[in-house]
Amino acid sequence: MAQERPGTRVLSTTEIIEPDYNFYSANGDYARENPALVTHLIEIIQSVGRQGQADLPGSIRTFARETGLSEAVMQRALTRKGADLGLVGFVERKHVAYEQGVADEFQRLGIIPRQLDIASVVWTPQSAS
Q1: How does 36-49 read in b/e, with b if 16+ C-beta sit within 10 Å?
Q2: Is the same domain home to 74 and 35?
Q3: Same domain, 82 and 96
């Protein structure tokens, strides 16, 4: 958003920063008890995302209208390198390893008080069996 303001000077972009992963959260017991439903929900989100990516101008207009952000801001966000509304899936080993690294560094820096085991709190279809 700030980049769209007159006079804003860009100091850095996310292109030099580590990957940015976003995750959906669910109650662990519920996910373990309903793996088919969780899988189906992810498939629906993927489908809607692919449709949104296929009509990016429409998605930009919709997101701008629904969020109150300008179309220019949404254009910038949805067309950044690597952006893809349909790129939704289950947590992979690379995600767990990355998040474990972040948790370890935060613990080393004293940001979090104790060691976390990220793999112990991640649900995947494979962990449901």
Answers
A1: eebeeeeeeeeeeb
A2: yes
A3: no
Q: What domain count does the chain have?
A: 2
Of 24, 23, 29, 74, which Cα lies nearest the Cα of 52?
Answer: 74
Domain span at residue 109 reads: 90-129
Q: Cβ neighbours of residue 59 under 8 Å, at least 6 residues apart?
A: 52, 53, 74, 78, 85
- Tokens of residue 47, six digits: 């489908």
What digits encode the pLDDT tens for the residues 12-59? 666 666 677 788 888 888 988 998 999 999 999 999 999 999 999 999
pTM equals 0.70
Answer yes or no: are the C-beta atoms of 86 and 50 closer than 8 Å. Answer: yes
What does the block give as tokens for 124?
């995947």
